Amino acid sequence: VVYNATNNELVRTKTLVKNAVILIDANPFKQWYVKHYNHELGKKKKTEEGKTETKEKKSKHVLRKLATRQKERT
After folding, report:
1. The pLDDT value given to residue 27
2. pLDDT tens for residues 4-46?
3. For residues 15 and 1, is the Cβ–Cβ distance under 8 A?
4. Which residue of 13, 31, 35, 49 has the fewest C-beta atoms within 10 A of its own C-beta?
5. Which residues, 6 or more positions from 37, have their beta carbon under 8 angstroms from its beta carbon?
6. CA within 13 Å, CB half, 65
7. Residue 1, exposed/middle/buried by CB under 10 A (0-12, 13-18, 19+)?
8. CB proximity list for 15: less than 8 A, separation 6 or greater
9. Quick check: pTM over 0.70?
């Protein structure tokens, strides 16, 4: 809890109430998304010259699974 208009004690004790302002770290969600869909969020597309990707060895089964997930991804 970052801010609560009613009481500062609710901020100190980190009590979640209606209309409280909270801060959420997005890194765990981004890491899961990259692992699940093999696509990074929030990255700008680069040209072919500036492309620096590291290829990991993946089995054929994992590659097929990622291909089907790419089709389902919106």
Report:
1. 92
2. 988 999 999 999 999 999 999 999 999 999 988 888 888 777 6
3. yes
4. 49
5. 66, 69, 70, 73
6. 9
7. middle
8. 1, 4
9. no
Q: Which of 37, 25, 44 is nearest to 63 (CA)?
A: 37
CA distance 29 to 14: 22
Tokens matching residue 49: 């010259």
What is the C-alpha separation between 28 and 36, in angstroms, rounded?
12
Cα separations (Å) of 68 from 39, 60, 72?
Answer: 13, 12, 7
Structural contact between residues 73 and 39, judged by C-beta atoms closer than 8 angstroms: yes
